Amino acid sequence: MLRNEKKEVSCIAMMRMNTVKIILSICLLTCTAGCSADVTEISDIALVTATGIDYDKKTKKYTFTSYCLLPTTTSTANTGKLSDWVVSASGSSILDAAKKLRSQVGKTLIWQHNKFIIIGEGAARYSFYEIMDFMIRNRQIRITSFLFVSKGRAVNLLHMNTETEDLLSNDLLGKVRNEKDWGRSISQSIQNIANWNTDPYRGFVAGKISKSRHSFKSKDALSLSGGSVFNHGKWVGWLDEQDVLVVHLLSDKSKWKNLTFSESFPFHDSNVTLHFKLDKQSIQCRDTDGPTVDIHLSLTSTVGEIEHYLSVDKLDTIIQLEHAASTFLENKIKHSLSHFQKDLNVDVIGFSDLFYQHYPKEWAALKHKWSDIYPTIPVQAHVTVKIDKLGLNQYLGDH
Amino acid sequence: MAAQNKITHGQLSCLVFSYLSGFSTLFLSEAALLKQDVWMSYLIGMTLAIGMLWLLCYVQWKHPLLTMVEISDKLFGHWVSRLVLMIYLIYMLEMQAAACRALSTFYTTVVIPNMPSNQMILLIILCTTYATYLGLTTIVRAVQITLPFFLVGILIICFFLLRDVETNPFLPQFQHSFSEVMYGSLLSLYFPFGKLVVFGFLLARVKNMKKIFSSSIFGLILAALYLLVSAYLTLGTIGIHLAGTATFPFFSSIQMVKFGEYLERIEITIIGIWTIFTLFEIVVLQYVFTILLRHVFRIKNMKPFILPIGLLFFISAQKSFLRLSDLTFYNLNIAPFSTMLPIAIIPIMLSIMTLLRKEKT
After folding, report:
1. What is the complex's ipTM, to 2 decimals?
2. Which class does domain A249-399 fall in?
3. Where are the domains of chain A?
């Protein structure tokens, strides 16, 4: 009898405990996301996939442009399609202009999927610090986004249609992806730029985006080619395609490990085009009798095309061709480095970082007059080219 | 003490690692200060923490049947011991307030900006209070369940980050003055390595008393390794300049991880794991706080006081470090010096007293 009573009491206690647990669980449910008032439905959002920032020096106004996509469509005619549109607003600061976009768009703008920041030439020249500060401070903008400087206003480029009729952001992504196949354009992430921007000794090359028109086409097309040079946190000028290729070759491995590019050069009264792939790269600095830099590049190559008959099946010809290609690339690198050192006086490759890392004591003396020393540093470029493939056909014949 | 309330030395290692690694990589203050020489500060900080731990273990070994609070009573006398324990209570209140604020600031800056910080802190404290109510063995089992997820997650992240490290970010070495390195070491001793001092009050709960030092050291070294790897990867991936100015540098570097071209934004999984481990840190602090409070005020049944202690934790966290700059100032200028008393001086005093008593007997 007593045992039954005890059992009953413990059962009642268990039930009470369970009731308390259930009530507590219900209370905690109010903290879950579904019960929050701060909820945004997917039909209420617009994804920003490319952003443009322009600055007018006269009016001191920023123009903030967003290339937006609707992840869902309410129109039955457009089912299965992503609808895109471009919206712009001006303001006294970037944030002010960005906030004004809200008055023009009936959606909540989401920047988490933004991959491209396009900065107008004026903005890059006069307010780059503020733009960088805005981007790395903002939680919605990812530091892996790519930054390009546009020739002209960014807003005009974002309004352009692509040649593939694809979304502009997809088209740009494809062009960034194609960078490794020709090496004449460059895409830099915001993270890299933010890190280099405050370095007082080195500059950097960011991407360049512009309109290009061919003689056989009636309308302009978006083009990623060349680069834009920054030094001491300010835009300095443009870089042509050939110099950008050299920047790729002398940059970190992530920039060149998948890079293939082609070059044409004269050889035995013929014009030869080779496909190159960089296998090894080494940049070493020394400070024995003054600072010097040694560059060693090792490339493999495939014969791409030959203007006239050339006996490429013979070892002698191949060796001569390899030598000619090496000399050609060495001259090309020297020419570009001379431009960086003497014309621009901007350490876009980051020789200062190398001296700092490997010769810290010498660097302590060098850094005070780095801008004077940098243009005079002798740079030795040694290129070794090995032609390992001839293609499917060795030669067409001697006619 | 009942055998079922004891933990094994392996569980102690897991708990030490989780407790130290909670959000130790969130700010990386030493890395921002010493940049490539940060490894020296970690090495010195870790060595000092090992010394402190050895002193605590020595005291515990000499009094195997007593808990650390009882040892304190025995060595210092009743009233001085109370004063010493009060110092630890204040230390733990400060540490939990800093942890709550750091976690809520991180969440409201990065993940959910519209959520009020107080609401966030309340949720944290509700969780930790419930865990304290459940007791040490449950806490340790929870650690054992979550630790593999943390290890796998962080290993994958580190592997993918390592691919982005092009040059050795720890070059050139020895570029900072002796005083800068010592200050950095002081910072790393205060946070995270010195936090280990609260484990002194849990050593008596370990089954195999002989292994308390080795198992704690194992957890400590793993935590130091994790911190060192995080600093290396952060400096190597986002760069020395950006790492020095970013609010949450390791988080910024984790943002760069992507699998292929499309699978990115995986940092949210790491945020989840970080959160759980920070909770463990606060849970341990709250649990030890409860033990000390029980002893100081001679409370027999502690269960009715667990919720009020949680409320005390909530209020102290809610009223402290209202701005991030307050927390930064506290972390860089006040705590490295003020916490020397509980982290270093009291353990040294305990061991000296133990030694003197031993010589007398």
Report:
1. 0.85
2. alpha beta
3. 40-239, 249-399
